[in-house]
Amino acid sequence: MNFLSINEFIQGSTQTYLDPGSGSMLIQIVLAALLGAGVAIRIFWRNIKAFFTGKKASEGESKDPTGVVDDDPTSLPSDPTSARE
Fold it and tell me: Is residue 6 part of a domain?
């Protein structure tokens, strides 16, 4: 074994290349992980809080944060004539 092959064995391949788009992809992965963790914490907040406080999470009061809101002020009325009155 000569010096070059030992050096290449220790340091790995000498012709490595990091694509410029890799940094952007790594930033997107980190942001997606942070936002995903935020959504998971928001959905399970009552259970997380109950775990640390030692109290039981109330099952009856829990609402689905991803559920559809019935009283949406931006929705159009079902009867178009009622909006004119």
Answer: no
- pLDDT tens, residue by residue, 7-55: 666 666 556 677 778 888 999 999 999 999 999 999 888 888 888 888 8
Residue 47 covered by a domain: yes
Taking residue 44's Cβ as centre, other Cβ atoms within 10 Å add up to 15
Count structural domains, the chain.
Answer: 1
List Cβ neighbours of 83 (8 Å cut-off, separation of 6 or more): 76, 77
Token pair 């790594």 is at which residue? 26
In the numeric block, the tokens 């999470």 are attached to 57
Residue 37 located in a structural domain: yes
Task: Please give the Cα distance from 81 to 60 (Å, whole number).
Answer: 38
